[in-house]
Amino acid sequence: MSQNKENGAANFIWYELMTSDPAGAASFYGAVVGWTIAAQGEATAGGVDYRMIGRSDGGNAGGVLALDADMLAGGARPIWLGYLHVADVDAAVAAIEADGGSIQMGAMDIPVGRIAMVTDPQGAPFYIMDPVPPPGMEGMESDVFSVTEVQHMRWNELATSDPDAAIAFYKKHFGWGQQGEMPMGDHGAYRFIQRGDVGLGAVMPLLEGYPAPIWSFYIGVDDIDRAAAAVTANGGTVTNEPMEIPGGEYAMNGIDPQGASFGLVGPRK
């Protein structure tokens, strides 16, 4: 989880699945994506059950945080969250709060860096992090996000109640750009966001079926039809069938057996 910087703009450097059933999630995402999720959690501060998501190339796609009874009683729910790199977590927390965001988990140190969980002013949650790179990997960039590769997150999509305000917020605090859009009829525009010259994803209006502003993440798969069939065969729900997207690939949305929403993107074979 080393840092990523380009023209001072932040990148997604980690993704985390919060789930009530890590073993069930391991079985599901193994079948759908091809990931390997550790059978047992690593020893972490506070006894939290945290498991790495392994890719077939030997890298990590992110981590799995097991939601215990206390977390669930406190309102936590299965969800995918992204981590954005910042140089100073405490300063970023203060600036985000001053701009109308909220603090879900105050800044704290963990073995791999300093983190906090926040929301943007519209309520979409995410982590911010100043990572400590593993020994020998100083200066290397996180590769959990890739615009092209399977078993990586390939697209980051924000559904929000106020797209103009959200875009202004992320531009200000994370240095992103916003160029280009795709019309969605009566729903408004699907507006593309960039980190330097890399397309990170898009911001869209909150549509029916979205209870609150949320980041959704699209996982790269080798074959969209195979993956879609695996979703239903393994206890998940397809909420949007595969649809062709610019460039000729296909994207779809689903909910895993524990209730976390996700997206998939890949070719039709």
UniProtKB/TrEMBL annotation:
CDD domains: SgaA_N_like. PROSITE patterns: VOC (PS51819). Pfam families: Glyoxalase. InterPro entries: Anthracycline_SecMetBiosynth (IPR052164), Glyas_Bleomycin-R_OHBP_Dase (IPR029068), Glyas_Fos-R_dOase_dom (IPR004360), VOC_core (IPR037523). Residues 11-131, 152-267 form the VOC domain. Transmembrane segments: none annotated. PANTHER family: GB|AAF24581.1, GLYOXALASE-RELATED. This is Glyoxalase. It comes from Sphingopyxis macrogoltabida.
